[in-house]
Amino acid sequence: xSFTFDATDWQIVPARSFDDxxxxxxxxxxxxxxxxxxxxxxxxxxxxxxxxxxDVGYAKRYGHPAPVVHGLQVLAFTAPGATLLPHNFGAIxxxxxELSAKFLVEVHAxxxxxxxxxIVDLKPLDxxxxxxxxxxxxxxxxxxxxxxxxxxxxxxx
Length: 157
Prior knowledge:
With 157 residues, the chain is α+β, with helices and mostly antiparallel strands. The protein contains 4 helices and 6 strands; from the N terminus they run ββααααββββ. The longest helix has 11 residues, at 36-46.
């Protein structure tokens, strides 16, 4: 048996067409437990140096049990590339065009987050297709900590 390697044909899952996608499909990311190191790294990258994110005394003075993980860091857990969704898109992907998010419960170091993207709409648009997903993140206690929406533009022809 002979195997010929071709990097241009290396896929995690078979690529699908816009018409192959189905409303109701759910794409989950692996769970992740946040640590102080994650929060520190995000603080360095974002330049958000508000003490609510790193000062235990400050956080407690303002009614939080611990420093609060940056909201944008939590939002990053909805990155489609953390799931198999963009691998399903393959070469038909054009752009990530829109997002929204509601932060519902604060997140702290030590929390484990579970994110999912569910296709809720597939709209043909003049030779292209728009995919809308609802995005959710739950914590280890089952609390919904973030809900929102993403939109992606795909080729259809």
